[in-house]
Amino acid sequence: MKTLTIHSQDSCYVINQGQMDNDLQSKTAKSITLEHGKYSIKIEKGWYSYSSSSETNEPLVILWIYGHDNAPFVNQNTGLEVGTTWTTLNGFNDVLTLEIKPNQKATVCALFLDIDARQSKGGEVEVSFTQIPSAVQKRLTIHSQNNCWKLNQSQLQNIKRHSFNFIELEPGEYQLRVKEGKISYWQQQEEKFKLEPWAMLWINGGKFITKYPAQDSNYSVSESWCSLNGYNDRLNLKVLEKTTLFGLFFDTVKEDNQGQVVLAIEEVALPKPNQTQTVSSQPKQPQPVDNIDWSNIINSPAIWEMRDQQDIVCVTPVRTVVRREEEITLIRKVRKVEEVDASPACPINTNQISPPQQEP
C-alpha cells in the first residue's frame, strides 16, 4: 500500500481572501445559492479538455461550497455536517447530494482549474441542481475559458514534495481513500464548524480513467482533478500509462491551519464495467417475457399456502434491468372485497393460474 500525506500548511495552495471573494467567486465561477432542502447535483452533459490532453475529454467540474455566515450544511454522500468543502464531479454517473438546514443557505461555486500560461482546448459542462423530492431543477453552464481559475505553476511547485504529497503510479488498478487524519482552519480560537477530512488530487501525465468503472475507456485522459471527501469516499483509478498524483488543499490563510490527511493507495482488482450499475438518464422499463413454462410456478406450494378461498393468483413475467437481465416472475394476489355479480379478474397483461389438481 502506498500513502499520500497532505499537510494542512505545507501542502496548502493559498488563494488570498480578496482573490477568493472578488475574482474566483464573483468573476470566475458560476454560482448558485441553495436554501433549505435537499439537492442532487450532477453533470448533465458536456466535457472539459486541457491544452496538453489528448482528444479524449472528461465530463468534469470543480465545486467550492460554503455555508452563509459559517452555517453548516450536510454532505449526504459522506453523512458529515460541514461549513465548507471542495469537491469534484467526474463523469455523468457522479452525483453529490447536499442538505441545507432550515433558515440557512449555502453557495455552490462551479468552475474549472488550470495552470497559468496555458489555454484550455475548449468545452463546457452543464450542471443540474435538482431539489428532492419536488424535482424542481436549475442548471448552470460552466465554460472552459470564462469559468476557469488559473493556478500559479511556481506556487504549485513550491508545495510539491516527492514521496510525500506527490508520487508516481505505474499502470494498474488502484483504490484511493482517506486513511487517517484531521485538519483544522483555526488555532487558539473557537471552532466555527466541523471540517470533513478532504483533499484535492491533481492527476497528470500518462493515461488513466477516473471513477472507473463508472467511467469506461471512452473517458481515459492524461489530466484531471479529483477529490476525496470523508472516510467513506473511494476513488477508483485505472492507470493505463504511468501517471502522477499530487495532493493539496486550498485556503485563504495557511498559518493557522493544523493537522494533515493521509490517503491510502491500494492496488486492487476493480470491478468490470458490466458488473457495476450506473445511473441512466433514461430509466429502463421492464420488458415482457414470452413463452414462459408455468409448470414450476403452478406446482410451487408457497404460492397456494398464502391463498384463501377468495383469492385468485395472477402472474406477470418481466425481464429485469439489472443482474444481467435475469428473468423473474412477479406474483400478485387480488381479493374480491365486495359481493357483486362479477368474478374477480386479473389485471391486463397478467395470467390467472389455478392450483394443481390433487390425485384422489
Strand content: over 45%
Shape: globular
Kindly, what is the distance between the CA atoms of the first and last residues, rounded to a whole number of angstroms? 70 Å
Low-pLDDT windows of residues: 276-291, 318-331, 333-341
- As a percent range, the share of helical residues equals under 10%
Tally of helical runs: 4
Q: Classify the secondary structure makeup into a structural class.
A: mainly beta
Give me the oligomer status: single chain
Order of helices and strands: EEHEEEEEEEEEEEHEEEEEEEEHHEEE
Radius of gyration: 27 Å
> Largest beta sheet, briefly?
9 strands, mixed
Average pLDDT taken over every residue = 81
Give the number of domains: 2
Number of strands: 24
Task: Describe the 3D structure.
It is a single chain. This protein folds into two domains: 2-271, no CATH class; 287-353, no CATH class. The chain is mainly β. Strands 1, 2, 14, 15, 16, 17, 18, 19 and 20 form a nine-stranded mixed sheet that branches. The protein is globular. Helix content is 8%, strand content 48%. It is built from four helices and 24 strands. A hairpin with a 7-residue loop joins strand 22 (311-319) and strand 23 (327-335). The termini are far apart. It has helices spanning 17-28, 153-158, 295-298, 301-305, and strands spanning 2-7, 12-14, 30-34, 37-49, 60-67, 73-75, 80-82, 84-90, 95-100, 106-115, 122-132, 137-143, 148-151, 166-169, 172-184, 198-210, 221-229, 235-241, 243-251, 258-267, 287-288, 311-319, 327-335, 351-353. The longest helix has 12 residues, at 17-28.
